[in-house]
Each structure stands twice: as structure tokens, then as C-alpha cells.
Amino acid sequence: MKFLCGIDEAGRGPLAGPLVVAGVILKKDILGLNDSKKLSEKKREKLFDEIKESSKYHIVFKSAKEIDDFGISFCLKSSILEIMQNLQEFSDSFLMDGNTNFGIKNLQKEIKADAKYTCVSAASILAKVSRDRFMDKISSNYPNYNFDKHKGYGTKAHIEAIKEFGRSDIHRVTFKLKALGETEFGNQTLLSF
């Protein structure tokens, strides 16, 4: 018997750090699963280990450089395809949180699936915790930016740090900021922070 595989991402919109996409097939019920954004950090951390022990899963990281080189949509699509390939032995049904399936055959999509389906909630948690841990780990290598505080998202403090120190090698240079007087051109993303 094959089970539904839930897929979700963390890090689509930050100014720095990777995109992380996770796919999860739960082998047993886990209490307390929900969209990772609705859970406390402590709760996510506790569920993270429980999910890994109770599932088949695959987690994909795409670096800021890959996002700059290929675009966020390509990175999302290639991550999803990698997950589907790695978990196809255990699932023939895949569900992505969101409003697009990136033209991928056999990939269902549903808005707010991360709050409705436990396997997508679990994927949301694996992606979020994996990304947060990565940003915490590298934070000491980039002391000017305090990545452990904002995880690379466009907070006021982070934008002020970019104004003062410029972008680091893990910043997404194609994500342009109105706050820095940058304008959109080509395949770049303009962010209104």
C-alpha cells in the first residue's frame, strides 16, 4: 500500500540563505502537526525528530547562488522532482502546498494544504526547521547580519545591515530591494521592504 506524500517549502522569500523543500510520507499518526508557521519554535523542534523517526522523507537545499542562477521557480520545480524521484517507491500520490504544480505531472496542489493534511504539515516542519538550523549554524560566519535572529528574511535590522555592509555571498543578489533604491530588470524579483 502506498501513501500520500506531502511537499512544502521554506525560504521562498528571504533575502539570504537557501530554499529548502521537503517531502514526507507518514508511516504513523503524529499528534500536534500543523502549518509550521502556526507552531512555536520549541514545538517545531520537538516534532522534527518525531517526524523523521515516523516517516519516509527527502529534504532538498537550493543555495542562494542556484536561486540567482536559475530562478526561484526552477529551483522549486527541480527540488519537487528530486523528492518525487526519491520517494516514488513509497508513494504514487504527491500533494504540494500552494497554488501551482509547476506543470509537473502527478503533482496535486492545494492552497493551505500545510494546515489540512498531516503529511504536508510534516513537510512544512521539516523544511522550516532544516532551514532555520542552517541559518543558525552559519550565523557566526556572518557576524554583521545576525542570521540567527531573522533567518535571512527582510526585517528592518537585516535591511539596515545590507545598507551598511552590502550583500554577503549567501545573499540573493537577484532579489532587489526598493528600500535600497534598486529597481527590477530581467528575471529579478523586486521586494518592497
TrEMBL record:
It holds the Pfam family RNase_HII. GO terms for cellular component: cytoplasm; ribonuclease H2 complex. Its cofactor is Mg(2+); Mn(2+). Gene3D superfamilies: Ribonuclease H-like superfamily/Ribonuclease H (3.30.420.10). The keyword Cytoplasm applies. Its EC number is 3.1.26.4. It catalyses: Endonucleolytic cleavage to 5'-phosphomonoester. Belongs to the RNase HII family. Endonuclease that specifically degrades the RNA of RNA-DNA hybrids. This is Ribonuclease HII.
